[in-house]
């Protein structure tokens, strides 16, 4: 890992499905990304696959195992393990920070990491030696999640890596396994991806939060916004200082879906 005294970045990543592990290109990209910054003290994951109100934190007292929140895949995908250490200190700090902003925080000791968390982490931090806690999204409201992210910004001062895990475009009607991962994306997927790249590059937070009205093919790229919503949390955490610098870390498409991912600072 690169050694630096800078604050850890904030990440938004497109997490893929369990077969991501079979994609040599994407696994290599995620591995290189994980090696491009200092190994964090711990990791706070916000995944598209956990919506729960109030804000809820995953297990910290014991390891309940992974959440295999998918169906129809080969048995080997249900045998994957990722035994990252628990992160009770991080969970306590998250509860304190978001509590100061009016959120009640619950704990779920039966909840492990879902595939939006462990699939990319297994490629980025394969040694599973960084403590991780996952936080639910209590709403899909852009402003609400942005403010939640703002409350989490001080975590960076203690060395925490904040990760929003979703997908830059997520319309499973486009997903065609028969065509292979390198199938050309639908035009609307490419259009949304280009808009997202440009909006992030210019730091246009207002446009991103109002993507349904500002982005081309927004409702086709995201028939439901849960895979875009983790970006709101990361924007809040990164933009707390009043400025946003976003750099594309991974781009391209996977079965027609944009896997664009950003490093935010």
TrEMBL record:
Listed Gene3D superfamilies: LigB-like
Alphabetized UniProt keyword annotations: Dioxygenase, Metal-binding, Oxidoreductase, Zinc
Source lineage: Bacteria, Bacillati, Actinomycetota, Actinomycetes, Micrococcales
Pfam families membership: LigB
Name of the protein described by the UniProt record: LigB family dioxygenase
MF (Gene Ontology): ferrous iron binding; oxidoreductase activity, acting on single donors with incorporation of molecular oxygen, incorporation of two atoms of oxygen; zinc ion binding
All residue ranges annotated as the Extradiol ring-cleavage dioxygenase class III enzyme subunit B domain in the record: 29-239
Cofactor: Zn(2+)
InterPro entries: Extradiol_dOase_DODA, Xdiol_dOase_suB
SUPFAM superfamilies cross-referenced by the UniProt entry: LigB-like (SSF53213)
Source species of the chain: Arthrobacter ulcerisalmonis
Family of this protein: Belongs to the DODA-type extradiol aromatic ring-opening dioxygenase family.
Parts forming coiled coils: none
Entry annotated with the keyword Oxidoreductase: yes
